[in-house]
């Protein structure tokens, strides 16, 4: 390679890096928005600032790996990468206590048992009775698991988040992978349709309208704590259905 050619290659690299930095600055508010939305549902000891760093790395990763030929908008792709990077950081922190994990397992097992026995969606009072606690204690239990569902959202949401399947098929989407992904979306859609009306509304406002829990509480004239509770229960119900799907695979 001539000196001249090498010089132009270096100039090109510099311009490319400058363009990359400009895009990072342009989408920095998106990182902050996602980090803020996730931080709201985390324990007080996890602050928003701790999520900005990994979120920015997720944005940088998105800039490096984005392929516009796949027909996906960069903003949509970046949101998935940013969220995924923050989730990975939270997993490393392992902030979810064992007692919270036990609560989630108890609720999941109760829902699974009741749905098998009753052939329908279980009521809160029935779940509480199956666990062997009062309805008040059950509501407190669902409040305690607030935030823990963040670590499972990438496993159950087919759109706007990275699923297990899309991670496995991120490089090569074979016809079989496409079929699995379509089947998974169908299962999640069916699961969402079986949720109670208020649960469906909370999920829709949070994931598709991108409202915060506080904003949803204002819209539905409920407390933010109650909205968080409804959201957690909806996620756990979907986890039960998706676990059954993965076990079959």
Question: What does this entry look like structurally?
Answer:
The protein is an all-alpha fold. It is built from 12 helices and no strands. It has helices at about 5-40, 50-65, 75-95, 100-120, 125-130, 135-145, 150-155, 165-170, 175-195, 195-210, 215-220, 225-249. The chain starts with a helix and ends with a helix.
Summary tags:
single chain, 249 residues, mainly alpha, 76% helix
Any chance you could write out the topology, listing elements then pairs?
Blueprint: H1 3-39, H2 49-65, H3 74-93, H4 98-118, H5 124-131, H6 135-144, H7 150-156, H8 164-168, H9 175-193, H10 197-208, H11 213-220, H12 224-248
- What would the principal axes of the Cα set say about the shape? globular
The class by helix and strand makeup works out as mainly alpha
Major pleated sheet: none
Low-confidence stretches: 1-9, 155-173
Compact overview of the structure:
The protein has 249 residues and is mostly helical. The chain is 76% helix and 0% strand. The longest helix is centred in the N-terminal third of the chain and has 37 residues.
């Amino acid at each position: 390679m001539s000196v001249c050619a090498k010089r132009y290659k270096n100039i090109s690299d510099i311009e490319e890096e400058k363009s990359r930095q400009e895009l990072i600055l342009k989408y920095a508010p998106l990182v902050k928005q996602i980090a803020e939305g996730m931080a709201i549902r985390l324990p007080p000891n996890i602050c928003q600032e701790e999520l900005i760093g990994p979120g920015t790395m997720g944005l940088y990763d998105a800039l490096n790996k984005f392929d516009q030929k796949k027909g996906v908008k960069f903003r949509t792709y970046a949101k998935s990468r940013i969220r995924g990077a923050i989730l990975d950081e939270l997993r490393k922190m392992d902030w979810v206590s064992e007692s919270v994990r036990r609560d989630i397992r108890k609720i999941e097992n109760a829902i699974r048992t009741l749905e098998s026995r009753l052939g329908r969606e279980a009521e809160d009072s029935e779940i509480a009775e199956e666990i062997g606690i009062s309805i008040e204690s059950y509501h407190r239990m669902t409040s305690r698991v607030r935030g823990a569902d963040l670590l499972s959202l990438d496993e159950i949401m087919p759109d706007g988040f990275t699923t297990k399947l899309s991670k496995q098929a991120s490089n090569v989407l074979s016809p079989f992978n496409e079929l699995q992904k379509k089947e998974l979306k169908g299962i999640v859609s069916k699961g969402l349709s079986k949720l109670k009306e208020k649960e469906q509304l909370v999920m829709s406002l949070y994931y598709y309208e991108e409202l915060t829990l506080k904003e949803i509480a204002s819209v539905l004239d409920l407390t933010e704590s109650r909205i968080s509770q409804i959201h957690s229960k909806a996620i756990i119900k979907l986890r039960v259905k998706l676990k059954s799907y993965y076990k079959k695979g």
